[in-house]
Amino acid sequence: MSPIQPSLIGRDDALHAVDNLLGRLRGELSADTTSPEAGAADRTLLLLGEPGIGKTSLLEAAATRVKDHGGRARWVAGSPEQARLAFSGLDALVHPWPDTLADLDAEDQLIIEAALREGETTASGTLALAGALVRILSSRAVLSPLLVIVDDLQWLDQSTQDLLSLCARRLQGEPVGFLLASRPSGLPPLWVRQSTLHRLHELDDIGAARLLDSLAVPAQGRIRRQIMRQAGGNPLALVELARAASIRLLSEKPVDAELPLTERLEQLFAADLTALPEPTRRLLLLAAVADLPDMAALAGVLGKALLPSHPGRHGNNPAGPAQGAARAAATPDDGIPLVHVADQAWSAAEKAGLLILREGVVRFRHPLVRSAVLSAASFDERARAHRLIASAPDLDEDRRAWHRAAATVTADGGVADALEATAERARRRGGYAAAAMTLERAAQLSPRTHDRVRRLNAAAEFAMLGGHPRWVADLTTAVAAVADTPGARAQADYHAGWALALTSRHDEAMDRLMAAADAWEDEGPARAAGALATAAMVAYTSGDPRFRRAILDRYRRLPPHEPDASTAWILAGCDPLGARDEALAHLRHATAEPDLPLDAFSMLGAAAWALDETEWAVQLYGTMLELYRLTSTAGANATVASAHAIALFEVGRWPAALAGVSEAEHAAAAGGLELATVSTHILAAALAAVRGDSPRARQTLADATRDFDVRGTRTFEMRTRQAHALAALAEGDHDTAYFHLSRLFRSDGSPVHFHSSFHALGDLAASAVRMERTEQARAVLDASRARLPATTSLRLRLIVCRAQGLLTDDARAEELLREAAFTPGGESWPFERALALADLGEWLRRQQRPADARAPLHEAQELFQGLGAAPWVHRTAAELRAAGVDTAEAHRQDAVMELTPQQLAIVQLAAQGLSNKDIATRLFLSPRTVGFHLNRAFPKLGVTSRFQLRDVI
């Protein structure tokens, strides 16, 4: 049976579990059982998850699957209305089958009809009824498997549940299976004991982003981030909130406003809210408005009563951070009682399943419960709660400012000033996203246009530093509507150009950035150079020569000024070959400066990478990412994380590159970043290819480019073709590799990309030699050498040497190949060094010099083994045997390379001694997800506990 095609985003594991169940029914998977309950577990799969998590969608996928393979599916769905009607589920199961009862043995027919008519059986009657139902199910599975599907098991009547449970234990050897779905609350214990349990968790950021992107109108910018935060990974909530956002003009709402819930979500997550007592609803509103530190501050306002304790659950400890919400009463100046909390109020809220009390801490069961509580309250009620919290004397000033803002509708200069002060404190802590959000709200409350524009531009600046281009675009659109000076418009152009630079809209990005550079030319060279440096990113990524010329022309017109990160990147990004020496001088000068600003590291890292100072680039990018990680509110920069991972790949640190792929993928998904997402997927494909998983590499490339035309972004076109070539080379398919590599150059031998095309010359030559296309490859090499300056980077010089050595027929071949293989410094790119060594060894062996070939082949094999490049390890071992080395293949694929990027990132942190909770905080996961990935990683690494990881990683 072919595996289920994963059409449900983020549910591959669940679909695999369903596939295993169906395979067992068809006899394709064996399962040894020693007891009836174990046998029932083999044929019963229980999907457990919160409302909206996707249980019904999985059931529908399974039903389609079994029908497509000639089987049958029979649906039963529980409902609250029929939960008390005995055997209502049995009735739904047997009656829709034509002539079901008529085909039964007369005694079985009487047993079934009696149960349905009377709704009860005796103990002996239950066994007889189970026997009758087993015979029904067995008869329906004579020709093909039968899958009984039960949705909302928690509401299925108990009589039917008991009956189906008994049948599941009596159907051994029959192709009948049970697929059940239930919410965690109300689940009968008997099914847990005799089922294979699969818990459906919330989607992670990548899955949530993929789901949002699959919608007709994908949410972007700040609204996207708000939807992901509020939905908490719930698929239904993501879809419903995104659709609501596409209908309503949510951009006009305050930035801290909750997205309105649809009626469907309110019914799922807060259906019992209206039935609660008034004091409990007020308590829930206060808990929804205040986070835990705020609730602790309420102690000074609401009295000294402690949070009620419950024996066996909270113990006798004093109330924790939530204690302030349990004060006896509070009455504002208008005389309306706002809070009157007693034990009964807490108990009612907890019994309704809306919140959880643990050791004095209040937590809503799901973020959408909090949203539903806020949606159910009027603005006046919410505003009174916010004002009450803001009046707490011990409240942190930043929180006080936000609560004042939440209670304010019209412009208020005092509140706006307080928010601006809060934003400045967040900026000093490195919390750029928090500063941007605070300033955006301050702008909304600013009475004067000048202040509104200034704060919006500042918010865009901080959103830019935090790596949120969609948000920056939204902010610059707001600035454009109210900008009152040329300077404000130029700043908006710069921010908008930066946001567009992270998309494939290259012409628009250049227009905005050139406009900003022109407007700032008279203000001073440094500011204009900053805009040109951002434009250089567009020029390099697009590969468009028009952009490079425009940037360099403007740069040369600027008055002389101190070299810095901007000038280093302008030169390296627009002319890395011709201006290499000048760019290197600027790079050295800029990196020697103390106290570099955060954004300088990304430009300096890019400059070092473009100049083939790859180890230097790794250090600069790594420093920037570490500075981000040290500040929990700074967010993540997908572009820098992706660039860092590329540099790590090039210097041979492939496990670290895999971890970088995971980090970049999460950050790009959360922000909806087009270029960063595609870049990360291309690198993931290259990593899969060099490890020998060519099918996965090709599938990853297909997924990455399905909705993205790489031809308009030449850097990505080059990298995509190089990844395809690596996948082909891993399989020994030199014809396909040559096809892709030759497309990096035009028919006249000119490079498609002014820089990155040249790095493929070595692999192009190697494939051409094996396909007897040396003349075509030599023409490309000659044209490239004519374009390259006399002095290039060491890396590019060695690549050209390798290509020359492979393509030449004269006596210089060995000299060139040895130069490529042994020149000091070339070890900085170990995969390229290993390829050069392997080419030299193969050339020597074919020159009938097997003894001379062994040393370079041995060295190449060691490098390939250390990298985990399995296909090249095999190939080099074959060359060694051909050279007369009588030894077993020294192949050992690095176990670390078997890990997924997510697993690797988690394992590396666990090896450092971090707890699951710490890892979850670092990687924006839940501790339970961390534990899941560790359990999956341990068998791959051959360890049984986290304490052994440091010996493996």
Textual characterization of the structure:
- This protein starts with 11 loop residues before the first helix and ends in a 12-residue tail after the last helix.
- The chain has 47 helices and seven strands.
- The chain has 953 residues and is mostly helical.
- The N terminus is likely disordered.
- It has a five-stranded parallel sheet with strand order 2-3-4-1-5, with helices on both faces.
- Helices cover 61% and strands 4% of the residues.
Short account of what is shown:
The chain is mainly α and 953 residues long.
Topology overview:
Blueprint: H1 12-25, H2 36-43, E1 44-48, H3 55-68, E2 72-77, H4 88-94, H5 106-118, H6 123-140, E3 146-151, H7 158-168, E4 176-182, H8 189-193, E5 196-199, H9 205-213, H10 221-231, H11 235-247, H12 263-269, H13 278-289, H14 292-297, H15 299-302, H16 343-351, E6 355-358, E7 361-364, H17 367-376, H18 379-390, H19 397-406, H20 413-428, H21 432-444, H22 449-465, H23 469-482, H24 486-501, H25 506-520, H26 525-542, H27 545-557, H28 565-574, H29 580-591, H30 598-610, H31 614-630, H32 638-650, H33 654-671, H34 674-690, H35 694-705, H36 714-730, H37 734-742, H38 761-770, H39 774-787, H40 794-807, H41 812-822, H42 830-846, H43 850-867, H44 870-882, H45 901-911, H46 916-923, H47 927-941
Parallel strand pairs: 1-4, 1-5, 2-3, 3-4
Antiparallel strand pairs: 6-7
Helix pairs in contact: 1-3, 5-6, 6-7, 9-33, 10-11, 13-16, 13-17, 18-19, 19-20, 20-21, 21-22, 22-23, 22-24, 23-24, 24-25, 24-26, 25-26, 26-27, 26-28, 27-28, 28-29, 28-30, 30-31, 30-32, 31-32, 32-33, 32-34, 33-34, 33-45, 34-35, 34-36, 35-36, 36-37, 37-38, 38-39, 38-40, 39-40, 40-41, 41-42, 42-43, ...
